[in-house]
Description:
Layout: H1 3-12, H2 14-33, H3 37-65, H4 70-75, E1 82-84, E2 87-91, E3 98-104, E4 107-113, E5 120-123, H5 124-130, E6 133-134, E7 140-145, E8 148-162, E9 165-175, E10 183-185, H6 187-190, E11 195-199, E12 202-206
Helix pairs in contact: 2-3
Amino acid sequence: MSADELGSTLGQQPLLALTIGAIVLAVAAQMVARRHPGLGVGMRNAAYLGMLVAGLLTVVGFASHNRTSDAALWLDHTQAALIEGGETVVAMRADGHFWVKAALNGEPVEFLIDTGATYTTVPQTIAERAGLTLAENGEGRLLDTANGTVVARMASARSLDFGNIETRGLALAVLPDAQNDTAVIGMNLLSQLASWRVEDQRLILAPRPASNAS
């Protein structure tokens, strides 16, 4: 490989160039350290830093291509929903589920969107923080969850919004914190939409058109 070809290859692969540069600098540091110890230490530290950066970039690159890796799960986080063409788009997270940052009565809450859940549910602590209004009769309702059957108290949310999805007076089930610590958007919200579908690891939600006042 000629010098021009090598330069072109390294220019197209900056991570490889950084790794090779760090190795060359580490070798040079050993040679320089014999006559100039201080300079050698500085060069060696710079080489170690370059190797560290290259290693971190490798991990990030691997995580972006392997959604099920431990690194991908560690780097993953819930993102705000996007609005594209009048529809709300929620990206799939590394765990294979759709999570969204929403505002419950104005309070920020991370929700798991679960098409298998009948009701939208929140744990007690989130219900208290969002100031949910519990049903006047205070009756409990048996719900099947991932942790088994639990007794939930029904409540009503003034608002639950994300992307361009806006709901008012939505019924929610409040679960004891010991039974569940995940807020879930269920079918009682999704059924109010015009449509929802999954495409290319994205959940696309279309709100119903606003009715025109007569």
